[in-house]
Amino acid sequence: MLWNFKKKKHPEYWETYLHHFEKKEKTNLDASRFVALDTETTGFDYYVDRILSIGAVSIVGNEITVADAFEIYLEQSHFDPKSVHIHGILQNSKKHQISEEDAIKQFLTYIEDSILIAHHASFDIKMINQALNRMGLPNLKNKVIDTMDLYASTRIKSNFIDKSVRYSLDDIAEAYTINLMDRHTAPGDALIAALIFLKTTTILKKSKSFKLERYFLKSNRF
Predict the structure, then answer these.
(1) pLDDT tens-place string over residues 170-218
(2) Exposed site from 77, 93, 125, 176, fewest CB < 10 Å?
(3) For the chain, what are the domain ranges?
(4) What region holds the Exonuclease domain (predicted)?
(5) Beta bridge pairs of residue 184
């Protein structure tokens, strides 16, 4: 008996996304495009909970390009009313909502091969990867940086500082006097993450030993 082991064909939008990674990888601050993102979700269980909204802004040449900011809301097949007090997104929200698949398609088109930035990034990336997996697709290929790791590196190293501290977005925003008006909205938190990224890298790149690659999260985090 002959077995037909044909390579699984992925949809065109995924092939288009992969095509961006064929060009030479850039890893310096001035030449790279970064995308700071945030997801609001129904909860914290990667397998049960779902993404309610995705917000993102791009950073090019050390400047945030707010004009092309990304913001979408997803149809809610799963809903947990206990999480509403955090993100404020109601199940029957009047905001325009699209399917999970359409949302992921648009997100892939927006990010291309950009280096992704998020606070406690592994959570957001895992939630997006779970959505991709439900669509029969592999995980994201983008490099990812966690703003908490960047901020921790700017702190004075001494025996009096607990290296296991997990700085919240609020902690860092307060330290940098960043406005928290749109906190707990996907686009608002994405913008805060972008500002933290710019502030921390401005400090870190003063060191001759600074290398952006040092902050890329390992794939096993996702």
Answers:
(1) 999 999 999 988 888 999 999 999 999 999 999 999 998 899 999 999 9
(2) 77
(3) 27-221
(4) 33-206
(5) none
